[in-house]
């Protein structure tokens, strides 16, 4: 009989450019890890797309690698988090292209895609009460503007062929179980679903019919929100009624029927861990509502929870039970942080030279940069003083909060 330390759980995290898989025991210790890069297509400065088939294939490879030396009979469950990217599927679960030229299998609009700026402006112009739960201004990174863009730009046959719109984390549980299950995290944070009974107009569903009619998507109301996955929504972490399907078990090389947890957005998975972490013994009794979780990656999310809803202009939320059950969540942050670092480095005239130098010295480019900084900073108290004349306005991909303006641009300036 397996002991607690011999019982394993598979954690899958799909980020912007890679999928990571870890095998973790009940004490939180990571036993193995694997990652695979996933593809991104950028057809214009504001349009980013992915393929759900590519992501699932890479995920399966990562899971197989991470579990290669694990006794699979001791695996107790699998859970998924992923970026809040929009996935569209037909009635058979096959991809429907999101590109006007019907590029094959590219059926995901990546979370950072800003093609729907005009559609977001149209939605904001309605002044609907739903908007007060996204800081007063909907972002083109959310799903309603993207769906509206698809309705306007896809041919009518392809639009009618779309059976369901999902967040990427929910697509992963769909692939794992064979059944569509909406996650409260995804629908509340990205689909304008009202999670608390006090927000709901018809007393039992979080979908607000007047909102979808006002923005030009009345067909969703007419079919009782079937294309948005229906009215059944699960709290993240809930064991789904259907475990790992026979097909998914084959793909992942895992036992059929393995318990599958309802999904969560990647930043919110990180926020859940940070908010609940016992950082120091003397802070173990600290209220979780006094903490701010900063989740950094391609973008950055600043997350705080409260017992009562807090309305802050330009800050997403308040979202009910989207991260911590029965608490309200507010989210600030910026759309490009890690991505901005990549942009500044890769567009610098010396980038190619740096890459070659790092290759020759068998170091990463970051280790090479660190070495250059330390060399140039000789005689200074700190190498940060090398940039004292440089000023950065970081809104290269718009401002998420608190200005909530996706059209803003950034700059780097050197003062005299």
TrEMBL record:
The keyword Transit peptide does not apply. One of its GO terms (biological process) is pentose metabolic process. Gene3D superfamilies: 1.20.58.2240, 3.30.420.40. Residues 292-412 form the Carbohydrate kinase FGGY C-terminal domain. One of its GO terms (molecular function) is D-ribulokinase activity. Keywords: Kinase, Transferase. GO terms for cellular component: cytoplasm. Belongs to the FGGY kinase family. This is FGGY carbohydrate kinase domain-containing protein.
